[in-house]
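User: Show me a protein chain along with its predicted structure.
Assistant: Here is one chain, sequence first, then structure tokens.
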Amino acid sequence: MSEAINKARALHRAGKLAEAESLYREVLGTSADQFDALHLLGILKTQQGQHGEALALVTQALSRDPGSARARATLGSVLHALNRHEDALASYDQALAAEPDLADALYNRGVTLQALGRHDEALASFDQALAIKPDFIEALINRGNALQALTRHAEALESYDRALAIRPDHPEALSNRGTTLHALGRHAEALASFNQALAIRPDFADAFYSRGITLHALGRHAEAIASYDQALATRPDFTDALYNRGITLHALKRHAEALASYDQALALKPDFIEALNNRGTVLHALDRHAEALASYDQALAINPVFAEAHFNRGNSLQELDRHLEALASFDKALVLKPEYDEAIFNRCISLHALNRHVEMLRNIGKALASEHKYKYALGMFVHSRAHICDWREYGGLVQRLESGVRAGTSCSHPFPFITVSDSPAAQLACASSYAGKRYPGSSAPLWRGERYGHERIRIAYLSADFREHPVAQLLVELLEKHSREKIETFGISFGPDTHDDMRSRLANALEHFIDVRGMGDEDAAALLRESEIDIAVDLTGFTASARTGILARRPAPIQVNYLGYMGTLGADYIDYIIADEFVIPRDRQIHYSEKVVYLPDSFQVNGTTRKIAVRTPTRAEAGLPGQGFVFCCFNNSYKINPPVFEIWMRLMHRVEGSVLWLAKAQAETAANLRREAQARGIDPARLVFAPRRGRIEDHLARYRLADLFLDTLPYNAHATAGDALLAGLPLLTRAGEAFAGRVSGSLLNAAGLPELVTSTPEEYEALAVKLAADGGARLREMRERLARNRLTAPLFDTERYCRHIEAAYTTMWKRYQRGEKPESFSVEPSSQRQD
């Protein structure tokens, strides 16, 4: 019997498992409870991965000899393999109680403790094994692993080096040593260690994987991907390699490939929450925000306390203009991670978008202290303060913004900047910096020089504001009057579907109306290219809900900046800006990245089909006093600034009994303005705030109660100026240097009231006093002139405007058809009027 056991044991040690098993079973056939045969066959079955059978055999052996420490240790190994780690630990402890010097049992006990996450105890167990057997290489390697888990990397490195001193060609020791060197930031040494391991074992998937991570850290991303691919060639189901491959592809901006890599990882491991989260970030980068949101939701369904997924979910909701929901996501992230500074800042972005400026200002302090980290924080801070007319340190803050822009820092988005800066050169610098970082032009443009041969020019208007909105109010009549014989119109809508009358009217005015909210920028751009659009017209620019990324992919041969944003976009993929001689004087073309198209009269279409209620409300109904001159400004509160307000307050001192009628503002805004008035000696009650009206016709009708509209600078009234003039209210402006500060002057020239355009603060103030001081005679004459000009002035002639802009489109199109580059040009005025 013992001879058969010894022969079987020899075969077993030689790796001849089938022959050894046959002999063990032969012994058991003779003696079913032979201890050695049961125990050794149990070990063999463990080696073969047949752990259920191994458990039965070792258990039977122990019933024969319950005191066998070695069999008890073997039982521990079987239980470990069955993931019954607590039971395994108890079995090792029983074995060691009987025989404390069992080095293998101590080692395996340490492995089980590692599996339980009890790394300190595992380390102690490995140390006990090494005290008995100092050259125990596996114990040295696992000791290093335990130290790594405890982030005691220097000690882990020493443990691996001890193992390698015994066996220099041990691939696991070399690979794990590389992982520790990586953790210590010694990436070049780590790479050398991985390469040594792979020279010994060329199919070592773990080493290829860890090598890829180190190459990524070294910025050698293409090599990192190759290393992950080699790991996957050996082990196609290596989910961590697929995951990290996705990270590296994302870093290379190869987002579609990164998405595929994450999807492969998730096909193998559907509950891989880090892959779900990163999949969302890739979809976010692809502007597929609804899909990104779904990916974050999947991650959070598995782990509701995943702070980063809540944060990323908030970011996608922001891109979808769902700011209230974004706030809720950021709040959840902050409950889980109170010092999550990025969530605090992005929460401020949503508060700003929701006009909750006071709350935003309370929370943005830390971001302002780290402007280099939080892009555009200063501009947002200044803009929120402007919204509530909090003018503390106003001049200094504006100077900081302008200095930051000139220095090339990302201190402000372009829109907040053009509301405080009157420098067209600085505005260009701001826009160019922002466009280059946020919306760089594509290295693989969708349109590559093809010339389309359509019978009609295909023009696509892109907007977030196809709804009841100032841009839509200005534009709708033009769209209705476009020549269907010459032009085929497309409306590309990426703003909310408000289901209002204006949206329906716009959809009817356009031949093709396409909602692309569910598309990423790439897909929306592909739609324009597939539709062979000749001229893509951006009506949104850098205002809220901008989708400049669509045009950054160059889907159309001609791309135009028009109407929605009063400034340059600073991007080389925008060919033209629609202007007039007043808003962009010819000597200032150098401050606009686009070529300038000069329309006659005014660049701004000012449709006249907007209804004005027949009935004028009484002064009492409007909250105005029964008597006294009414200075009016219905501009947004952020356009009002200290220099403008100083003049207004001096006017109120000089025009006795006058009031300043302003658009209704937040309570904080009204309180701040009243406080500023009182500080300048004006009774705060003389500031009257007009509540919002539900119908545009009622709002326009109350303009009749005002005597003079006072404009702002550096950001004029735009659509609001058109409203005032349409309603018959004279408007006094001061022309600035940049586009946004010259719009009202353009409209006044086209309306036949050029004398209301001033050049200096002194002229502006003096003319306001003069108009208020003569009993209103000059203003009455101007009102009468406006009424007459409704029939004759270019500002109110949409047919004429339509002929001009269609001529502009035709000139652009002909240049493109001839293969000529965009150049600035002027449109000849039409002499024809059609009623």
